[in-house]
Every structure is written in structure tokens, then in C-alpha cells.
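Chapter summary example.
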Amino acid sequence: MTRAGTARSQMPDTIKPGGVESENHPWRIRLVEHPKRFESSFFKAAKRTAHRILDQMDDADLPYGPRPVEPDHWEMHHGGSLWVMTRGGWRMYRARVGIEWSMQFCAEPSRVDRLRQDAAELVAGFPETLPALAELGYEEAEELLRTPIEDADGVEAWTDSLFNACVPMSHGNHQGILPKVPGEHHYPWPVKGADFFRYDDFQLWVTLPDGTHGAVTPVDRRGSGDGHVRLVLASEGSQAADTLAEAQEQGLMAVLPPNSSPALQAFAGQIEPGQRSASGPLSAHRAPGDGHGSGGG
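The structure predicted for these 297 residues follows.
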């Protein structure tokens, strides 16, 4: 045994805190194929039930966007899908957190069991839920809700259950990437979620001056005449990212002026064509139906 004060670290110099990475062993990210993905029996049953629920719902009651043209084009997101039967029909609430399929392998059973308990309490408030699920063929619902989760098998069953794995979304809203459609897998939910409640004539996602994409919000209520926008998301490594991080660190807002390109993009549906500032009254020439989904100009 070496004497106190003379013990040597077993860590190679190249990976000691503060050490320098060897040029002979650079960090690399490898792109490898997924192991062949299979649908568990739990997920097959949950997905089948979710499709039957969706078939019974009116379009206006769907949680995230319009119904796809082909019913089998729904993508089921493992996002914490708490389905209940209310007096007005089926409704879906989001769990405190959802467990992505790959995340189950780091999930601590007792913490997942807390999610089960939350779901059981919610379903208990809607007593028609379990009979309605049984009628649809999902008879395992009651057992899932009352069985404590104590091991990896229980985590797997919950992860692929109707109460976690069946948030119905289009491909774009699920996995899309800008400049087409921002999907929940790639953009933080506090920002992406606004896509489902913003005004139709406010553009949440904009192109920033360096060509990267970001998200902005108005700084005041609709009709205020204020065309400033607040930057709420910027791509890591972009010119705007450091500014946004500094603003957040200091508890400040990163605000772009009304004549900036992002502001003009954001309010393009609310201002007159060719207008050089996003500030001012709402345009009288907005297309019919605009204004149902944010704006401040």
C-alpha cells in the first residue's frame, strides 16, 4: 500500500479532470443501426385500443392536430397518455412525464410506480373508463393500474401500456425536423407545445440571420401593436445560442426589434405585405380563419 499523500490516480492522464485529450484517441460519435425493433405484446394491445378510441372521437376532440388521411398513419408517442372516458367521451391527459421506449432501461421501478399511482388516481375519478376499455378489448387496464411496479418487467409493461405509449401524433409533430415540421422528439416541449394553441397567423418557428432555426414569442398581448419578439429557442452552437444562454443566466429576455427578420417572419400573417416593421395595428387583409391559433402585432 502506498503512503498517504503519495497515492497515484488510476485514471489515465488523458481523461483526468482538466487533462488534455490525446490526438491519437479522438472522440467520435458512431452512427449504428438500432437492434431490430419489435413491438411488445403490451404495445400491440395498447396501440390497437388507441386506434379504437380515436375512431370513436370527433375531430375537434383529438388532442394533437388533425386526423391523418390514412388511419394507420397515426404514430403513437411514448409521451404519457392517460386516456379516460368522461361524460363527453374519450379524453387524453398527459402524465407528469412520459417514458420513451429507450428510457425504460434507466428507469427506477419505484419512480415509475409513482406514475402508475398518478394514473390510477386519475382513472378512479372517471369510473366509466375501465368498463369502456374492457369493451374495447383492453381488459388488462385494471391490472396495470393496481399492480405495483417493482422490477424491469413491470417497467416494460407500463412503458408500452395505453397509459404511457399512446399519445397520437402525425409523423411531423412526433419526429419532424425544421425547416419542415418541428417534432416533439427534437424540440423542447415547453416550446413545441405552443404549436397546439398558438394563433394560426403567428409564426412560432423562424429562420435566424445565421441561417439556423429558432423559436420566438410576442412580448405583449395580441393587438398591442408591439412587434418585438422574444427569442425562446436557438440551436446549440448558433450565433444566437450564447446570447440566449446569457439572458437566461441573468434572468433577462433576449428580444429582437420589430424590424428584424425574425419579427417580420413571426408577424407576417398579421401585418400588411411589404411592411418594414412588425409593430402597428393588425392588418385588415388577414386571410379568413386567421387568428385562431398567437400574435402581438
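To summarize the output: The CA atoms of residues 199 and 292 lie 5 Å apart.
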